[in-house]
């Protein structure tokens, strides 16, 4: 049986306006476009690293 991949639910809580371009790129890379938009992404090191970098703008919730 294949191991189930862990997921993370990410919600954008703050505006991208006036943020560093690299931070904006991280948020876009996670698939977020609007405030209060929520996406579910795999808990890969790449996604978790982007979420950690801009954690002050996000709400991150681990799913089982």
Structural overview:
This protein has 64 residues and is of the alpha+beta class. The chain has a single domain (7-63), classed as Ribosomal protein L30/L7 (Ribosomal Protein L30, Chain: A, 2-Layer Sandwich). Helix content is 28%, strand content 27%. It has two helices and three strands, in the order E-H-E-H-E. A three-stranded antiparallel beta sheet has the order 2-1-3, with no helix packed on it. Helix 1 (21-29) crosses helix 2. It is globular and about 40 Å long.
β-strand amount: 25-35%
What is the succession of H and E elements?
Answer: EHEHE
Strand order, sheet with most strands = 2-1-3
- Structural class determined from secondary elements: alpha+beta
Number of helices: 2
Question: What is the first-to-last residue Cα distance?
Answer: 17 Å
The average pLDDT is 94
**CATH fold label:** Ribosomal Protein L30, Chain: A
Question: Superfamily at the CATH H level?
Answer: Ribosomal protein L30/L7
Helix content bin: 25-40%
Rg calc: 12 Å
CATH second-level architecture: 2-Layer Sandwich
CATH class type: Alpha Beta
């Amino acid at each position: 049986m294949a191991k189930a991949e862990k997921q993370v639910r990410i919600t954008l809580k703050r505006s991208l306006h006036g943020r560093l371009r690299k931070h904006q790129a991280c948020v876009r890379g996670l698939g977020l476009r609007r405030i209060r938009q929520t996406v579910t992404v795999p808990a890969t090191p790449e996604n978790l690293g982007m979420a950690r970098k801009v954690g002050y703008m996000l709400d991150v919730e681990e799913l089982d």
